[in-house]
């Protein structure tokens, strides 16, 4: 019975479109996430969850990180950071270092520099709740959405 709930849970969230982000930290290290959510506007805070990959463990240990919200034109980047072996932090991807040492994606819709407030273990994942210290707004060019295991791009007119 429990396995049926787990499978149905996965199927339910495949039907629910989400935004796409690359979370980056000094090292450099990064991963693709589709679980980023706003938690509070005052103080500014967000959350996301990660599983136990080497990149996730490095980000969980980092004193600060950047949540880079992706827009159209970033599908290859999202795929590169979604699993092992993809090209990461290459010059043509548009990365720069912040004065605080974290990589930031210059083509992101927005980049939010954060520090963790709390790490909550849940099953095989960890939910990160983080305070946002800086926001860098990029061009509002459209959207990149992850839905039913596919990336969907929309462009603003």
List descriptors.
3-stranded antiparallel sheet; 46% strand; 18% helix; Pnp Oxidase, Chain A; 157 residues; alpha+beta
Note the main sheet: 7 strands, antiparallel
Total strands: the figure is: 12
The structure class reads: alpha+beta
- Helicity range: 10-25%
What gap, in angstroms, lies between the N and C termini?
Answer: 48 Å
**Annotated CATH architecture:** Roll
Strand order of the largest sheet: 3-2-6-9-10-5-4
How many helical elements? 3
Strand content: over 45%
Tell me the CATH topology.
Pnp Oxidase, Chain A
What would the principal axes of the Cα set say about the shape? Answer: globular
Order of helices and strands: HEEEEEHEHEEEEEE
**Rg to the nearest angstrom?**
15 Å
Describe the structure.
The chain is built from three helices and twelve strands; from the N terminus they run αβββββαβαββββββ. The protein is of the alpha+beta class. It has one domain (2-155): Pnp Oxidase, Chain A, CATH 2.30.110.10. It has a seven-stranded antiparallel beta sheet, sandwiched between helices. Strands 1-11-12 form a three-stranded antiparallel beta sheet, with no helix packed on it. Strands 7-8 form a two-stranded antiparallel sheet. β4 (37-41) and β5 (44-50) form a beta hairpin. The mean pLDDT is 94.
């Amino acid at each position: 019975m429990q396995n049926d709930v787990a499978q149905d849970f996965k199927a339910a969230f495949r039907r629910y479109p989400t935004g796409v982000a690359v979370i980056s930290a000094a090292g450099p290290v990064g991963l693709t996430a589709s679980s980023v959510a706003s938690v509070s506007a005052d103080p500014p805070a967000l959350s996301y969850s990660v599983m136990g990959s080497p990149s996730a463990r490095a980000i969980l240990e980092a004193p600060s990180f950047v949540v880079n919200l992706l827009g159209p034109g970033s599908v290859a980047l999202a795929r590169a950071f979604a699993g092992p072996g993809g090209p990461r932090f290459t010059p043509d991807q548009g990365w720069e270092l912040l004065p605080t040492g974290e990589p930031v994606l210059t083509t992101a819709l927005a980049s939010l520099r954060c520090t963790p407030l709390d790490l909550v273990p849940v099953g095989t994942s960890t939910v990160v709740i983080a305070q946002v210290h800086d926001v860098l707004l990029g061009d509002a060019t459209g959207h990149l959405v992850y839905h039913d295991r596919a990336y969907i791009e929309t462009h603003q007119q």
